[in-house]
Design a protein that fits this description.
Helices cover 39% and strands 17% of the residues. Among the domains are: 9-58 and 214-284, no CATH class; 63-201, OB fold (Dihydrolipoamide Acetyltransferase, E2P) (Beta Barrel); 525-682, 3-Layer(aba) Sandwich (Rossmann fold), CATH 3.40.50.300. A hairpin with a 4-residue loop joins β7 (151-153) and β8 (158-162). α20 packs antiparallel against α22. Mean pLDDT is 82; it is low at 174-206, 471-475, 699-710 and 757-763. It has 26 helices and 23 strands. The strands form 4 sheets. Strands 2, 3, 4, 5, 6, 7, 8 and 9 form an 8-stranded mixed beta sheet that branches. It has a 7-stranded parallel beta sheet with strand order 13-14-12-15-16-11-17, with helices on both faces. It is an alpha/beta fold. The chain binds adenosine-5'-diphosphate and magnesium ion.
Length: 763
């Protein structure tokens, strides 16, 4: 039975694909579902599996014969077992454990008199059992292909190939599911391979060689499946896939114009490159298969974003916010400085959006410290002046708390009520706030994601501000709309994204940029120092404190080693408090602390009861303590440039000179030094972001991993920028010039269908 793209992976055994058992198919479905972000393993399909692209390729095309070998040749040879067996050797590393060498003496199809030797080590409790298993496998005459670097052994007077793992061999033909060759530890062993005689098999290759004698894909481990097993499974799926069930999803005109492969061909070739193409193109994501699939991804993304954007513009929100002179007058009294030109410009863009009948979807982008908050507060003020409620969501409780304190101060005397709503708010208070939001007594809500939880019902939400977008998902934005509110939405981010990229990443948003700092800021001085300069750094800390200032010492938390890092941060804190600065006030704050403790620590820092705040990267976003003038970042080499820039933005918020010291670990490598050097050179977040993009790629910089912003399967907006531009131009063409065509209608229908599915999943 042929497969289609929609065939669920759990059903593969029924199709006999890859000789998967039901048990392994479930494991595979599990792994694929989590990779493809499907809710249930049952939802994972052949399409999802085929979207698991190789990370690189190897060219194993050339089948060699023994007489063509010379020492050091890397080649595949099709071999026939002469004899095989195990012998015990001394185990120097672990004398208690038995160690065997399993060795096969084999010859090629020319039946050379001199065999080659293929061998590997074997140890462990089950060694005996495994030896028997191999003995069955490698009966006289059994055929296999071995790939690797062939060495000449003087001692044995033969070419030999040492394998790290025997699963680098491909046994031919193989019709069982072995539990030694794959990672199938929980399954009973398969059928024993029959012994085959040499003559039977020569010249009758009715089976496919999957792993050798061809170009092969190499996959990253997926769940328990390693590259060889994945290669087999994907090979079989590909082979059984009915090409007619792989519909072309790009307009024929585009396929012709850009000379793209058909979708079906591209899917096959991206896994198994044809012999005629340059393998190096595959490794560089530049093969015809890549080009086609990347184009497709960009085209559909651009098409959907442009479509949705156009439609949102058309959908009336019914809430029109007028800015009267009186409102403006009252707004001016909320702050005691002059807005910068940039702030004024973006504010009028925002107010214009709010006054319009179409809902606002605007991204406010501005470097750290550029003064986004006051702009947001003024927009919120305009909403409440018009009788609507306004909400501001921050990614962390600390930040929400801080915005809340600011908002209370700013809106004091306006007669509007400001409420805080975070997970940390006590249940009784929470209920009160909920009631206030529902009956309209609360005008401004500041909080975390708790604001959009089910229990919260707004009387009439007019404006939702989302601070630090890169920590928030696009889905959460959809969540608001999905729950029946259609407010104006303002998204603020300090992650400076080069303009060209903003369009695609936030394609459904209009973008405003604050490109000017408030006056009177002295640029932060940044230095990169090594471990040997630590004593000097401590002196600097003491000096700043003596001047009445405060200091951050930041310890990076890296996800993979979070526990260890946390320990290190805590140790550092104790060391600073007890040994280095016993007569200063040292505090500690990190993400794992209880919300109340975090708040209390932050409050003490703000009110200058703490001189040195040791923290993990939780203070990265938003925290505003103008008296802090020195930041020391430990292990700065572990952080991305953009992240460092965010961190650094916590100082330099007052008029006095601020400093940022980037300490690098013991080994201050040249690379780290060079990379961090840009931090010494510039305070311009945009320049830094571009550099960061260059070095690390999009996912890290744009924080797409946290936020779920368009995760591309294959495409990369930096590497493939040219394809992106073309695809996005074409999408626009279909939505404008060809808007009334049948093709466009069909594509619009597809977007609507998948969009509804997404929203339904959220609401
Ligand atoms: P960010 O854009 O990083 O969120 P904030 O909104 O926290 O920056 O502003 C940083 C600091 O600058 C705050 O202390 C704020 O009060 C101050 N500020 C904002 N705008 C101005 C301005 N036009 N003139 C002077 N100070 C300003
Ligand atoms: Mg901010």
């Amino acid at each position: 039975m042929a497969l289609t793209l929609d065939t669920p992976i759990v059903e593969l055994p029924r199709h006999g694909t890859g000789k998967l058992t039901g048990y392994m198919a479930k494991k595979l479905a599990d792994a694929v579902a989590s990779f493809a972000e499907k809710k249930e393993p049952g939802d994972a399909t052949v399409e999802d599996l085929l979207n698991y692209f190789p990370s690189r390729y190897e060219d194993r095309s050339n089948l060699t014969t023994i007489d063509q070998l010379s020492p050091g040749t890397e080649a595949s040879i099709e071999l026939y077992t002469r004899s095989a067996g195990a012998f015990e050797v001394r185990n120097n590393r672990n004398p208690k454990q038995r160690l065997y060498i399993y060795e096969i003496a084999a010859t090629d199809r020319h039946r050379q008199m001199k065999p080659v030797l293929v061998w590997w080590f074997l140890s462990g409790k089950n060694a005996k059992h495994i030896v028997e298993y191999y003995n069955d496998r490698f009966g006289k005459g059994s055929r296999f292909v071995a790939h690797g670097e062939w060495r000449w052994s003087e001692r044995r007077n033969a070419f030999e190939l040492k394998l790290n793992k025997p699963d680098e061999l491909e046994i031919l033909p193989s019709d069982d599911d072995s539990n030694v060759f794959g990672l199938l530890a929980n399954e009973p062993a398969g059928n024993k391979a029959e012994d085959r005689t040499l003559d039977e098999d020569v010249g009758s290759p009715e089976f496919d060689m999957v792993h050798t004698a061809r170009r092969v894909p190499v996959y990253r481990k997926l769940g328990p499946f390693q590259t060889k097993r994945l290669r087999e499974i994907i090979y079989d799926a590909n082979k059984q896939l009915d090409p007619r069930s792989v519909p072309e999803n790009l307009p024929g005109e585009l396929v012709g114009k850009y000379k793209l492969l058909s979708r079906s061909q591209a899917i096959t070739e991206i896994h198994f490159p044809p012999e005629s193409s340059a393998i190096s193109d595959y490794d560089r994501f530049r093969s015809e298969a890549h080009r086609r699939l990347i184009f497709e991804e960009f085209f559909w993304l651009s098409f959907a974003l442009q479509l949705i954007r156009g439609e949102r513009r058309k959908a009336p929100k019914g809430t029109v916010i007028e800015i009267s002179d009186e409102t403006l007058e009252r707004a001016h009294r909320l702050y005691d400085f002059d807005l910068t030109n940039a702030q004024q410009r973006v504010l009028s863009q925002i107010l214009e959006d709010m006054a319009s009948d179409a809902p606002m979807n605007r991204l406010l982008q501005g470097d750290v410290g550029s003064g986004k908050t006051i702009v947001a507060f003024l927009a919120m003020f305009a909403a409440v002046e018009n009788g609507y409620q306004a909400a501001l969501m921050a990614p962390t409780e600390i930040l929400a708390e801080q915005h809340f304190q600011n908002a209370k101060r700013i809106f004091e005397g306006t007669g509007y009520n400001v409420a805080l709503l975070t997970g940390g708010v006590k249940a009784a208070d929470k209920r009160k706030v909920h009631a206030g939001i529902e009956n309209g007594e609360v005008h401004l809500v500041i909080g975390t994601h708790a604001i959009i939880q089910d229990a919260v019902k707004f009387e009439n939400l007019g404006l939702a501000v989302v601070d630090e977008q890169h920590r928030f998902g696009v889905l959460q934005r959809a969540e608001l709309t999905g729950r029946g509110y259609n407010p104006d939405v303002l998204v603020m981010t300090a992650t400076p994204i080069p303009r060209s990229l903003a369009m695609t990443v936030y394609g459904d948003l209009d973008v405003s940029i604050i490109d000017e700092m408030p006056p009177g800021r002295t640029p932060i001085k940044t230095v990169v120092l090594g471990e040997d300069q630590r004593p000097g750094v401590y002196k600097g800390i003491a000096r700043e404190i003596d001047l009445g200032r405060q200091v951050y010492v930041v310890y990076p938390l890296v996800e993979e080693s979070e526990k260890l890092d946390l320990k290190a941060a805590t140790k550092m804190f104790e060391e600073l408090r007890d040994r280095i600065f016993p007569d200063r006030r040292v505090g500690l704050i990190h993400g794992r602390m209880k919300a109340a403790d975090k708040e209390e620590t932050m409050r003490r820092f703000v009110s200058r009861e703490i001189d040195i705040l040791v923290s993990t990267t939780v203070i990265e976003v938003g925290v505003d303590v103008p008296n802090a003038s020195l930041m020391v970042v430990e292990h700065a080499e572990r952080l991305g440039l953009s992240q460092l820039h965010q961190l650094r933005g916590r100082v330099g918020r007052g008029a006095e000179q601020s400093y940022c010291v980037l300490l690098t670990g013991d080994k201050k490598t040249a690379v780290a030094k060079e990379r961090l050097g840009i931090m010494e050179e510039t305070n311009d977040g945009f320049k830094i972001a571009e550099k960061d993009l260059e070095i690390r790629g999009q996912g890290e910089v744009l924080g797409t991993r946290q936020s779920g912003i368009q995760n591309f399967r294959l495409a990369n907006i930096v590497r493939d920028f040219e394809i992106l531009e073309a695809a996005s131009k074409e999408a626009e063409y279909y939505l404008t010039k060809k808007r009334t065509s049948k093709e466009t209608a069909a594509m619009v229908e597809i977007v609507h269908r998948s969009h509804r599915v997404k929203l339904a999943g959220v609401g």
